[in-house]
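dude i think i finally got it to work??
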Amino acid sequence: MEQAYYKSTVGNLCVIIENQEVTRIFFVDKIRENFSTPSPLMHKVIKQINEFFQVERREFSFPIRLKGTDFQLKIWKLISNIPYGTSLAYVKVAKAYGDAKMVRAVAATIAKNPILLVVPCHRVIGSDGSLVGYSGGIETKRQLLELEGFPEQFNVL
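look at this
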């Protein structure tokens, strides 16, 4: 396992790589010093995250591995398809899954997203366009959406 930290404009991120695949990207309060030389893959990941925050990258192109139940994997795959600069309501994610009544289960699964930014759960919003629920906090969600063009260029699908 390899771990590295990135100080972004919206908070500190930790990246974890296992078996040459990114398995987690999440917010942390403090950055710990890295004592080992980063692998080429970690260099690539950090470079792409930096490009995302510099508004030079809209998609990531490094290997990831999501770990979860079949339901979680399906929901994370659905939200992975939300294009940069757009959003989708939680209820519409549930409908895309096949059952609008599953909105609470969908929201709970989105809250457990292990690979932030790459699986763009910040793009999932309330039906009324409100910014609700985000593991990094609502202010962080707002900042990520603004980075992608919200509110001027933001489209609710």
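The longest strand covers residues 11-18.
im so relieved honestly
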